[in-house]
Amino acid sequence: MYIIKEKVELVFNSLGIEPSFYEHRNQLTALIPQENLVDFMNELKHNKNTKFDMCVDVTAVDWAKAGNRYEVIYLLYSNENQFYLHVKTPVEETHPKCPSVTSVWASANWYERETYDMYGIKFENHPFLRRFYMPEDFKDPETKEPIFPLRKDVPMMGIPDAMPLPPYPEKYGDLK
């Protein structure tokens, strides 16, 4: 792990960014400000020492606190080095947005759409950012604001006046 950490540290240095890492359960995470995200990711992919050629996943976390309430988390993999790297970038609560990395990895397209659909984080310069699972009209009946189901501010008991879920099969027999 220390060899990869040193290689990623060189990428930080080449961009003039102060390296910021932490390790948890033998997994390395790099913390990067949004303004450097695309350049950092591009360098991680194309640098001959790192070669993170796969964007395996993109997701987010809602910490439900003021300031940088959200974090966008990228999971990258280097086939050559056989190593995973998490890259986290903070996202502000008001008007949550993050630069898209679809210009670096085309696979990030669908992952960013899913993250937008669940958390409402808009990925700037995304080629086709729209809802992924939820219908386009998935909105609060009173405020008409879009609802993003994995946010901590979504009511735990569901959306008032929304259509109820279908009955449980074990209570009403097998659904066919």
Please characterize this protein's 3D structure.
This protein has 176 residues and is α/β, with parallel strands linked by helices. The chain has one domain (2-172): NADH:ubiquinone oxidoreductase Nqo5 subunit (Beta Polymerase, domain 2), CATH 3.30.460.80. The chain contains 4 helices and 7 strands, in the order αββαββββαβα. It has helices spanning 2-14, 37-46, 108-119, 169-172, and strands spanning 21-24, 27-31, 54-62, 70-78, 83-91, 97-99, 122-124. A 5-stranded mixed sheet has the order 1-2-5-4-3. A two-stranded parallel sheet has the order 6-7. 24% of the residues are buried.
Query: N-to-C SSE series?
Result: HEEHEEEEHEH
Strand order of the largest sheet: 1-2-5-4-3
| Global morphology | elongated
User: Whole-number average pLDDT?
Assistant: 90
The structural domain count equals 1
Distance between the termini: 51 Å
Q: Low-confidence stretches at least 5 residues in length (pLDDT < 50)? A: none
Q: Which oligomerization state do the chains in this entry correspond to?
A: single chain
User: What proportion of the residues form beta strands (DSSP E)?
Assistant: 15-25%
Number of helices: 4
Q: Please identify which CATH superfamily we are dealing with.
A: NADH:ubiquinone oxidoreductase Nqo5 subunit
**CATH overall fold name:** Beta Polymerase, domain 2
Number of strands: 7
Largest sheet: 5 strands, mixed
| Gross CATH architecture | 2-Layer Sandwich
CA radius of gyration is 19 Å
CATH class: Alpha Beta
Helical proportion, percent range: 10-25%
Structural class: alpha/beta
